[in-house]
Design brief:
The complex is a heterodimer of chains A (about 110) and B (about 325). Chain A has about 110 residues and is an alpha/beta fold. Chain A has a single domain (about 5-100), classed as Glutaredoxin (3-Layer(aba) Sandwich). Chain A is built from four helices and five strands. Chain A has a five-stranded mixed β-sheet. Chain B has about 325 residues and is α/β, with parallel strands linked by helices. Chain B folds into two domains: about 10-120 and about 245-329, FAD/NAD(P)-binding domain; about 130-240, FAD/NAD(P)-binding domain (3-Layer(bba) Sandwich), CATH 3.50.50. Helices cover about 20% and strands about 30% of the residues of chain B. Chain B is built from six helices and 21 strands. In chain B, the strands form six sheets. In chain B, strands 1, 2, 5, 6, 7, 8 and 21 form a seven-stranded mixed β-sheet that branches. A five-stranded parallel β-sheet of chain B has the order 10-17-11-12-13, covered by helices on one side. In chain B, helix 1 (about 20-30) links the parallel strand 1 and strand 2 (about 35). Chain B starts with 7 loop residues before the first strand and ends with a helix. Classes of the chains: A alpha/beta (about 110), B alpha/beta (about 325). The interface between A and B is medium-sized, with 25 and 31 residues.
Chain lengths: ~110, ~325
């Protein structure tokens, strides 16, 4: 399952239960381009365990502002709607897997 | 690390910036079996650069990441194998050399080109690392849009600091460049863009002592190095552009490096070229490190030029020398 795109109208609904990994990104961001295929891979690999989602900060500045995202890519891990971990800057696949492991998700 | 019977590449290139990928284009076009260990964060410094205006062949400029994607595609076209994996350890004592990666694989090569480049330096302030991604950044092209109508500071005096400042003026309400000295070392064209921009103010002779803020940056503490005066300034963004240091941690003790960690090119006596009158006219290999068969290219050894185009040029030199060395071996 590819990563789902969230907007401010469906963000709360999609994030409120279970484990959701949200990648804040934008078209103009070089490192986000490196992260994109990795995020899609994670969506596939953890399908059923983790919902992997993306937020385009250009389209959704309110969401970026709400979570204090001031650098992208930023990946935030939510558990039942609460932030449990955050990775600022592209960390490579191992970095994101570690984020999930540390949070006890996988 | 290396196991008998595994595939041995003709050349293993460590790094995937302009130096590594230019080298890869040359070695693969010459039908050498080439592996690039690209790094998890592949593409090098241009991946966090906005517009590149001085790379020949792009009269309208090109975005850094796009240039690197093109170089990568160009290398792949000739059959280069590219691993998006980090080199963690190297074995340069006997051939084939081998390189161990973050995912636990080991790759063997008859020769190696070290092209790991350099990475941005941080100021080392008490609250700097804690506030990265919360207002502290080393990448204006990545993060500038988050500072729409906010006050920001850029620390540094080189081309990178100038470029970051100009990029930020498109978003921020005010940009202040803070520099330790009383003049910039940036190129004249970049300095002019800063000094003639109404939105940019410069504070000279001033060192940053800390960045303040709980959840996000609220200001900077600084000290004038000439008067000793200390002051604070409210800003919401701090962009650090104070230069780079070579990415050579895994090569320490494996090849000779200088005091700052840059890999040294070594003139090997055995490769001295003598003309018919018995006079030395140079050396056969100019990009070789202290280890025969291990070559170097790009910012990882270059303290002088540090340009995308010089890095690509060094990559070409190293590739041609690898080819010659392998065929003479």
């Amino acid at each position: 399952m590819p990563a789902v795109h969230l907007t401010k109208s469906d963000f709360d609904e999609k994030v409120k239960s279970g484990v959701v990994m949200v990648d804040f990104w934008a078209e103009w961001c070089g490192p986000c381009k490196m992260a994109a295929p990795v995020i899609d891979e994670l969506a596939d690999e953890y399908s059923g365990k983790v919902t992997v989602a993306k937020v385009d900060v250009d389209g959704e500045p309110e969401l970026a502002g709400k979570f204090g995202v001031m650098s992208i890519p930023t990946v935030i891990l939510f558990k039942d709607g609460n932030e449990t971990a955050r990775q600022v800057g592209f960390a490579g696949k191992p970095g994101y897997v570690q984020l999930l492991t540390k949070a006890g998700v996988v | 690390m290396y196991m008998d019977g595994e595939l041995v590449y003709d050349v293993v290139i460590i790094g995937s910036g302009p130096a590594g990928l230019a080298a890869a284009v040359y070695t693969s076009r010459a039908h050498m079996k080439t592996l690039v260990i690209a790094g998890v964060k592949w593409g090098g410094q241009l991946m966090i650069t906005g517009d590149v205006e001085n790379y020949p062949g792009f009269p309208d400029g090109i975005k850094g990441p796009e240039l690197m994607e093109r170089m990568r595609r160009q290398a792949e076209r000739f059959g280069v194998v590219i691993m998006d994996d980090d080199a963690m350890d190297v074995q340069f004592e006997k051939r084939p050399f081998s390189v161990k990666t973050g995912r636990g694989a080991a790759y063997a090569g008859e020769s190696v080109i070290v092209a790991t480049g350099a990475e941005a330096k941080w100021l080392g302030l008490p609250n700097e690392q804690r506030l990265i991604g919360r207002g502290v950044s080393s990448c204006a092209p990545c993060d500038a849009p988050f500072f729409m109508n906010k006050g920001v500071a850029v620390i540094g005096g080189g081309d990178a600091a100038m470029e970051e400042s100009v990029v930020l003026t498109k978003f921020a309400s005010a940009v202040t460049v803070i520099h330790r000295k009383d003049s910039f070392r940036a190129s004249k064209i970049m300095q002019d863009r800063v000094l003639h921009n109404d939105k940019i103010k410069v504070i000279w002779d001033t060192e940053i002592t800390d960045v303040t803020g709980e959840d996000r940056v609220t200001g900077l503490k600084m000290k004038n190095l000439k008067t000793g005066e200390e002051r604070e300034m409210p800003v919401e963004g701090v962009f650090v552009a104070i230069g780079h240091s070579p990415s050579t941690k895994i090569f320490q003790g494996k090849v000779e490096t200088d005091a700052k960690g840059y890999v040294k090119r070594i003139k090997h006596e055995k490769f001295k070229m003598i003309n018919e009158n018995g006079e030395a006219i140079g050396y056969e290999y100019n990009t070789m490190t202290s280890v025969e068969g291990v070559f170097v290219a790009g910012d990882v050894h270059d303290i002088h030029y540090r340009q995308a185009v010089t890095a690509a040029g060094y990559g070409c030199q190293a590739a041609l020398e690898v080819e010659r060395w392998l065929s003479n071996k």
